[in-house]
Amino acid sequence: MGAEPAGAVRGKGPRARRPRRAGQCWPWFGRRGSMKCLVTGSNVKVLGKAVHSLSRIGDELYLEPLEDGLSLRTVNSSRSAYACFLFAPLFFQQYQATTPGQDLLRCKILMKSFLSVFRSLVMLEKTVEKCCISLNGQSSRLVVQLHCKFGVRKTHNLSFQDCESLQAVFDPALCPHVLRAPARVLGEAVLPFPPALAEVTLGIGRGCRVILRSYHEEDADSTVRAMVTEVCLGEEDFQQLQAQEGAAITFCLKEFRGLLSFAESANLNLCIHFDAPGRPAIFTVKDSLLDGHFVLATLSETDSYSQDLGSLERHRPVPQLQAHSTPHPDDFANDDIDSYMIAMETTIGNEGSRALPSISLSPGPQPPQSPGSPSEEEDEAEPSTVPGTPPPKKVGAEGEGGGGGGGGEGSRLQNSLVPSSSARCSSAPSWPP
Amino acid sequence: MKFRGKIVDGACLNHFTRISNMIAKLAKTCTLRISPDKLNFILCDKLANGGVSMWCELEQENFFSEFQMEGFSAENNEIYLELTSENLSRALKTAQNARALKIKLTNKHFPCLTVSVELFSMSSSTRIATHDIPIKVIPRKLWKDLQEPMVPDPDVSIYLPVLKTMKSVVEKMKNISSHLVVEANRDGELNLKIETELVCVTTHFKDLGNPPLASESTSQDRNPEHMAEVHIDIRKLLQFLAGQQVNPTKALCMHRICHSGKKTLLLRVETNETYKRL
């Protein structure tokens, strides 16, 4: 019964008094509970792959342990891509979202830091036996500990920021068009495209063939044209194909590849939900233990597009070519000879011949549809007014994580996600099949 | 002008792809000349000192199962196109395990060479990948610059050692100097020499063999051991060696010193189907 030293700690419950240390903001920290997740075996590599996937999208990782599971989310700087993985509690050997009676943790970590823990997937597969992610309510570091073979233990203490929940409001069920195929099929389909290709157009052609075509912005003063690659897949390759002929969207291939490589390695089916051009496209993978959603902005139509489409139809010199290009594989005997003729300048003294006038798809950069440019939003999107919520998509119903953050601010952020380069001319490619 | 061709044989496709990769490594843009029985890849790079020009010829019937062309006119039944060589090699890369490949001249928005690859797929439907390679049609008046170069009688002509060996030697030499001296004589000896202020390195190859000379007149007064030498840019030589993916049946190197003092080095690679000069 002697006097106890001033800093003594009694009990371990949340209400226990802890000695106050200078420079720390206690009341806030005190309310937050502890989190602990333990991943073992091959799931460690799955987690690592998911982080790699997310790193293709954004620079900050939002980590939120929910009752439903651990959620890892990110959004890109121009708010044109959002990605989220939700790992169910069963994915973990041990999962504790928070200590009872305490608030849920929400934190934001630099993607580079978190990725560095999982940088080498080969190493993860070969040497790591367990991975433990934990946060003690009082500490200011997220601890990721890798238990490796031979008694090696690697501990990473990552600093983080508290933040509001990153929520995107979207609902795949509201999209009229759906495609579902094994990720492997889609992976093979994108192989012919150059790795540096930024954007690709996905559309439904005649005979329900799914067509992927490389998309290049028309650059009026560029003399060097880019090669156009097109891949055509049959309906049989898809497990589900519910879309109209002529439906097409253009999205960022690089961002899509992030999810694709994850889905291929996990051998999952990939589902693409999309709507009209300009509306975001939702890419999902799902299995009993995890859920992945990538929401990407698509190129929107402008008035000039519909005009150009009309003019293309008129000026196109070889309309028969289109009729023959799909669905049957080309047979030389059926090819219309005349359709392959190139009109060549016969007068000597002409410098090269592009005999037909080049058709420009758009007169110049068009202002994006939404009133505010994405870069403006970026500055204001910090926790104070719009706490980390990306612009709600027009399809708007309650999506994952609830509509919490989006409510009052919805009216200010008008439109569907604008494509990543805000100044670009947004004419969708012509889409006759 | 019309052109369309189809390749169905896997080995032919493979060979064609490797040739296109070789071209892509040598030059950014090249000219493709299509005539009724041949395809040529031509590069004409006339620089002030030490440029590279290349002429590659393929017999069409060794590759294509179907081949049809119609040139500029009846008297000039040829087509000259300019394209970015990397585009072609990338398009052909898709065709590694293809059922068939079709290549044709088309005009979709702009003149292009359309390479259409029919791929094997797990399901019954075929999967088709199409590449539209933008091209520029070369006007008739420029054709004369793109003719087959005349091979003048060389002073020395010698068979090259295994190209792989030569490549690894030249690669190491590249780190030391930017110019290389190639010496050869009619006794089957070839030397690769680099000289800098600090060091001088020579690699000797012996017993290489010399091909029989075309004309006897130049040979008489030449001492077989006398070396003919040429200075060339290492990088250009390395480009040529690096691009060699086709196993040649013979590789030759010819030195020529013409009366104006200008020296040329001709490297000639022959396989059963193609021959190529540098």
From TrEMBL, chain A:
Compositional bias annotation for Low complexity: 416-433
Region Disordered, annotated ranges: 316-335, 353-433
GO biological process: cellular response to ionizing radiation; DNA repair; DNA replication checkpoint signaling; mitotic intra-S DNA damage checkpoint signaling
Keyword Nuclease: yes
Annotated catalysed reactions: Exonucleolytic cleavage in the 3'- to 5'-direction to yield nucleoside 5'-phosphates
Locations listed in the record: Nucleus
An annotated GO cellular component: nucleoplasm
GO MF, one annotated term: double-stranded DNA 3'-5' DNA exonuclease activity
Any Pfam family the entry gives: Rad9
Amino acid composition bias (Gly residues), ranges on this chain: 398-410
Keywords: DNA damage, Exonuclease, Hydrolase, Nuclease, Nucleus, Phosphoprotein
Described purpose of this protein according to its UniProt entry: Component of the 9-1-1 cell-cycle checkpoint response complex that plays a major role in DNA repair. The 9-1-1 complex is recruited to DNA lesion upon damage by the RAD17-replication factor C (RFC) clamp loader complex. Acts then as a sliding clamp platform on DNA for several proteins involved in long-patch base excision repair (LP-BER).
UniProt similarity note: Belongs to the rad9 family.
Subunit structure: Component of the toroidal 9-1-1 (RAD9-RAD1-HUS1) complex, composed of RAD9A, RAD1 and HUS1. The 9-1-1 complex associates with LIG1, POLB, FEN1, RAD17, HDAC1, RPA1 and RPA2. The 9-1-1 complex associates with the RAD17-RFC complex. RAD9A interacts with BCL2L1, FEN1, RAD9B, ABL1, RPA1, ATAD5 and RPA2. Interacts with DNAJC7. Interacts (when phosphorylated) with TOPBP1.
Protein name, as recorded: Cell cycle checkpoint control protein
Underlying gene: RAD9A
From TrEMBL, chain B:
Superkingdom of this protein's organism: Eukaryota
GO biological process terms held by the UniProt record: double-strand break repair via homologous recombination; meiotic DNA integrity checkpoint signaling; mitotic DNA replication checkpoint signaling; mitotic intra-S DNA damage checkpoint signaling; nucleotide-excision repair; response to radiation; telomere maintenance
A Gene Ontology term for the protein's cellular component: nucleolus
Gene3D superfamilies attached to this UniProt entry: 3.70.10.10
Keyword terms of this UniProt record: Cytoplasm, DNA damage, Nucleus
Cellular localization per UniProt: Cytoplasm, Cytosol; Nucleus
PANTHER family: CHECKPOINT PROTEIN HUS1, MITOTIC AND DNA DAMAGE CHECKPOINT PROTEIN HUS1
Function: Component of the 9-1-1 cell-cycle checkpoint response complex that plays a major role in DNA repair. The 9-1-1 complex is recruited to DNA lesion upon damage by the RAD17-replication factor C (RFC) clamp loader complex. Acts then as a sliding clamp platform on DNA for several proteins involved in long-patch base excision repair (LP-BER).
Assembly and oligomerization: Component of the toroidal 9-1-1 (RAD9-RAD1-HUS1) complex, composed of RAD9A, RAD1 and HUS1. The 9-1-1 complex associates with LIG1, POLB, FEN1, RAD17, HDAC1, RPA1 and RPA2. The 9-1-1 complex associates with the RAD17-RFC complex. HUS1 interacts with POLB, HDAC1, FEN1, PCNA and RAD9B. HUS1 does not interact with RAD17. Interacts with DNAJC7.
Family indicated by similarity: Belongs to the HUS1 family.
Name this polypeptide is given: Checkpoint protein
